[in-house]
Amino acid sequence: MNGLAIHDLSVRYGRRDVLRGLSAGPLPRGEITALLGPNGSGKSTLLRTLAGLAKPAAGSLTLDGAPLALTAASARSHSVVYLPQALPAGVRLQVLESVLVAARAGRDPALRERTGTAAQRDLATAHATLERLDIATLANRSLDELSGGQRQLVGIAQALVREPQVLLLDEPLSALDLNHQYQVMAVLRDVTRERGIATVVVLHDINAALRACDRAMLLHDGHIAHFGPSAEVVTPASLAQVFGVRARIEPCSRGLHQVLIDGIADRQGIASRHTR
Ligand SMILES: Nc1ncnc2c1ncn2[C@@H]1O[C@H](COP(=O)(O)OP(=O)(O)OP(=O)(O)O)[C@@H](O)[C@H]1O
Ligand SMILES: [Mg+2]
Questions:
Q1: Domain 3-93+159-233 coded CATH 3.40.50.10260
Q2: What are the pLDDT digits (tens) for 140-156?
Q3: Where is it chiefly localized (predicted)?
Q4: Which amino acids bring their CB within 6 angstroms of ligand 1?
Q5: Cα separations (Å) of 39 from 169, 220, 258, 262?
Q6: Domain locations along the chain
């Protein structure tokens, strides 16, 4: 199947193994995989490794069955786009300008046209992306004058205009209000399907993962504890094991599944306390 696959990947910082022998895949094109796990479980490390920004101690990656070398340059040539958890501050560009720069950077330098048509196409794409993310009114504002959430939306726009084949987003909803969280996940779903992108999104909102992501990968203790269709792998048992919470999963009136947290589980994953 086409998509991104992880083969026996290990990553260490100094002498400490953070990820040990991870294998999964494929993470199919046209689908969103939610990367879930506790603080410090290695989600950002895995995403940075997929982006070629952290060097693994062992293992390999493939995209559509072909090796994807684990270097930033190689990842770029395969159009792997990564949005970090913390966005850079102090950038003086205007919003539209920054999105245009990203659109140009996303093109293969060998194919980069310098014609008026290419520039017009970039401009149209940039405007359409800002519109789609509900931030067209920010086009002429300076990046360093934006709120945290507005800057996060611009970061997502910059990632989308690069037209990736693999899209890696680290907590893209962390600064967004309810309305924008919903809109961003809807746009990601549409774009992922339309363009056949293999999208991986780190989330702490399990309900967003259940609602908008096709698959979920749960990291725990340096391993992939669960990987599969979201509704199958996000269960009270897996949430107790991975997050140490006592959870219920109940259908809402629209038939979607919702996670409700009742308390903290003990180390065996059995409820020990009620917090309500
Ligand atoms: N540059 C680094 N040098 C040394 N250790 C690091 C480095 N970056 C992360 N770590 C450690 O690696 C582990 C995994 O960190 P990582 O940032 O991948 O976690 P995470 O799952 O993204 O957590 P969070 O949900 O808090 O963002 C943590 O124990 C962290 O302290
Ligand atoms: Mg992180």
A1: no
A2: 999 999 999 999 999 99
A3: membrane
A4: 13, 18, 37, 39-45, 85
A5: 16, 10, 22, 20
A6: 3-93+159-233, 235-276
